[in-house]
Amino acid sequence: KKHIILKTRNCLNFFVEQDTLHYIIMITAALHEAQIHKPADTSSTVVSDNAPPTPRIFRSKLPDIDIPNHLPLHTYCFDKLSSVSDKPCLIVGSTGKSYTYGETHLICRRVASGLYKMGIRKGDVIMILLQNSAEFVISFMGASMIGAVSTTANPFYTSQEIYKQLKSSGAKLIITHSHYVDKLRNLDDKTKIGEDLTVITTDEPTPVNCLPFSILINETNPQEESESVDVGGDDAAALPFSSGTTGLPKGVVLTHKSLITSVAQQVDG
Fold this sequence. Notes:
- The structure is a single chain.
- The chain is of the alpha/beta class.
- The chain contains 10 helices and 13 strands.
- The protein has a single domain (4-34, 65-267), classed as Rossmann fold (3-Layer(aba) Sandwich), CATH 3.40.50.12780.
- It has helices at residues 20-32, 73-77, 81-84, 101-117, 134-145, 159-169, 181-185, 214-217, 224-227, 256-267; strands spanning 4-7, 13-16, 44-46, 58-60, 88-91, 98-100, 125-129, 149-152, 173-176, 198-201, 211-212, 236-238, 254-255.
- The strands form 4 sheets. A 5-stranded parallel sheet has the order 8-7-9-10-11, with helices on both faces. A 4-stranded antiparallel sheet has the order 2-1-5-6.
- Helix 1 (20-32) crosses helix 10 (256-267) and helix 4 (101-117) packs across helix 5 (134-145).
- The longest helix has 17 residues, at 101-117.
- The radius of gyration is 20 Å and the shape is globular.
C-alpha cells in the first residue's frame, strides 16, 4: 500500500492508510503540530463517591484543551508557520520528496487560487479521489482556504459507487490520479470528461480531456479575491460518506470547528 509520511517538528511521523476521516484528522494534526508537546499523563480520576449526588464524570488530570474553534482549519494548522517555515512538513514515503511547512503553505495557497480561478467558490464541493499522497493534503487544504468543501472518495470504488457519491455531493470537479480516469469515463452515458465533468490528474502524462495538477500549483500569484474569502468555524470543511453498512452511504458534514476539535485532541490532549 502507498503511504505518506507526515513529519512534525518534534519528529513525530504518521504512517497512514486510506481511512478518510482518520486520514483527514491525522494530516491536519501533523500540520498543526508546530509547538512543544506537553508531557503526556493518561491517568484519569473519578468524582468521589462521597461527593453530593451528581453524574459520575471521568476527567483527565491534564488541563482542559484550548480549542480555538472560531478559526478555519487551515489557519489553525499553519498558525505557527513563521517559526517552523523551514522545517519538514510532508515527506512522501515512495519517493522521499519532502516539503517544508513554508513550501506546503505556499502550494496550498496556489491551489486555492487555482481552484478559485476555475470558478470554485465558498460552499462548493470538490471530490478528492486519491490514495495517500502530498496532493491529497495540498488539495484538501487549498479547498479549505477558499471555503470549498472536500468530499473524499476511495479510489478503489467502482464507477457506480463514485458516480453515486459525485451526484449526491454535487461535486463540481474531481482531483485524481490517471490510474482512475477510466472509471470516470464509465460513470454514465451522459457524463463526459472535459464537457460535463472537470477532472484534474496529479501525474504525467495527462489523460485526454483532463487537466494537469500543474494548472493549480503553478499559480505564481495567488489572487487577492481567493485570499479574502471569509471562512469561519461553523462553515463546512469536509463531506466524507458513511460506509453504507446498514444502508446507502450518506454524506456527513464536518465543519472547520469539528475538525479542529479532533485535531486538538490528537496534538494537545
